[in-house]
Amino acid sequence: MINKTLKIVLLSTFIVFSSFSGSVYATETDNKKTYDLLNLFGEVFERVRSQYVDDTDDQKLIESAISGMLNSLDPHSSYLDKKTFSDMQVHNKGEFGGLGIEVTMENGLVKVISPIDDTPAFKAGIKPGDFFTHLDGNPIIGMTLNEAVDQMRGKVGTDIKLTVLREGVDPFDVTITRAVIKIRTVRSDVVDDIGYVRITQFNAQAMVGLEKAFNKFNKEPGKGKLRGVIIDLRSNPGGLLDQAVSISDAFLDSGEIVSIRSKKKPEEGQRFQARRGDISGGIPIVVMINGGSASASEIVAGALQDHGRAIILGTKSFGKGSVQTIQPLSGYGAIKITTSRYYTPSGRSIQSVGITPDIIVPLAKIESLEPSKLRRERDLRGALDKDNGQKKDKKEDKEKAAKNVDGHNDGKDDDKDDDKDDDKDDDKDDDKADDKKNETKDYQLTRARDLIRGISLYQEMKSSENQ
Question: What local confidence, expressed as pLDDT, does residue 117 receive?
Answer without folding.
Answer: 85
